[in-house]
Amino acid sequence: MSATEEFDVIVVGGGPAGSTAATLVARQGHRVALLEKERFPRYQIGESLLPATVHGVCRLLGVTGELEAAGFMVKRGGSFRWGTSPEPWNFLFALSPELSGPTSYAYQVDRMTFDDILLKNAARHGVDVREETPVLEAVRTGGRVTGVRCTGPSGAVGELSAAHVLDASGNTGRLHAAVGGERHHSDFFQNLAVFGYFEGGGRLPAPDSGNILCAAFDEGWLWYIPLSDTLTSVGAVLNRDQAARIQADRERTLMESVDACAIVRDLLAGATRVTEGTYGRIRVRKDYSYANSAFWAPGIALIGDAACFIDPVFSTGVHLATYGGLLAARSVNSVLAGELTEERAFTEFEGRYRREYAVFCEFLSAFYDMQVNEESYFWKARKVTNFGAGDLEAFATLVAGANSGERALVEPEALTERFTASSRDLAGAVERTGAARTESGERMTELFRTPVVGEVMTEMNRIQHRGVVGESSEAPLLPGGLVPAADGLRWAEPA
Ligand code: FAD
């Protein structure tokens, strides 16, 4: 590696955020290097996708055919044993007014395969993909990030320079510090997850057999993700005070959680835990809801888990990662084309990204609040009224700029009121939806009428719509903001 290599853009990390951004910048003819620490395929958690990723961003990336050919499990939505109903209820994509039709599904993916498809696709689009190349630090010139220092596969340290660095190095990356600001960890969502894989688990009755199942129990909740006809990803989300118990015996903690949750216990009755290969380990993740107070600085922007992550209950991680990748690519492309200043393009990037994070934050808080269990410390601590001052402050900081001026985002009390109202709306809609597990139709549309769900779907619907029908005209999402250009790869001033 020579010390003088120059690119237009350096992307750090080859997960969904990095591959998305790199491909969409390379498609505009720019010179892009993507530096990835591991050799792919590599393991990652985050297997349940949303339609906006599959039919929106992945279509823009040109991998629709490859995803179909990979034979991933089709996911029509989520099934939840959650809230007051003793029966599981569904949140089906098909019933969103704008998502109905042939693209109202997503996939449950083996991330080794999915991420490898996206990374190879980036290389096919001309991205200089370098695996086993960890980035050590950002290089600065004056007040600007102008490149990175990294180690190549031979162990030699080299330097690459570029007009823009995109940090997509996930939750373990350290480069985010180069943007400045702080990383706010949520007290409210401070959970631990312990997870493993099972062969031979049961399936929900058709047509819900590909759905993710999320089931609440006294000490937390479990996910049950069918990855194939026989392989299932199972994880328990617990309070972080369970750390010592998990550390003492991961397998026992996972199996005790399964035993405490009737619906998952029954589904796993005839199953055996995978104990060999990549899926044979029981893994743990902790402290995983956070957001950086700044998403960009001159020369560098954060995307995916490097910028923010919010609790996995609604499978939003890969959506936020690919969405962040798309927004950053539009901004970089606009600046490199000389059409916008960095300030204008990245203010749009950050505003939209924060808005998307903030609507999920509100939705997921309402979702947690809905589960009632007076006996349980886990569930009592997750009532919206227990939003700590730190969380409220972090939330207000987080969305400042995206929705500034709104009273509810500035005053903690008003924010709690707003979240409580969202929770009431959501719980009411689920109540009216009742135990309509396999039936769809009228009762399910209740969910989509609630303002908090509408907010969550707005931008996802737009991305999916653009992916499916190609060019589309949109109004600015933010006051005084920009709109996507006709090709979806740059920003334009609204007409
Ligand atoms: P990653 O996928 O983490 O990719 C980052 C890449 O950067 C990695 O390949 C890494 O090797 C590389 N890297 C790191 N440091 C460096 C460096 N210094 N130099 C070069 N490369 C580097 N999301 C969903 O959508 N659905 C789910 O069901 C879901 N379940 C989850 C369950 C749990 C318990 C948790 C914690 C998360 C879950 N997620 C889920 C979230 C999901 O895992 C992430 O949001 C997603 O993987 C983020 O993608 P990314 O591209 O930002 O980062």
UniProtKB/TrEMBL annotation:
The keyword Nucleotide-binding does not apply. One of its GO terms (molecular function) is monooxygenase activity. The keyword Transferase does not apply. Coiled coil: none annotated. Keywords: Monooxygenase, Oxidoreductase. PANTHER family: FAD-BINDING DOMAIN-CONTAINING PROTEIN, FAD-BINDING PROTEIN. Belongs to the flavin-dependent halogenase family. Bacterial tryptophan halogenase subfamily. This is Halogenation protein CepH.
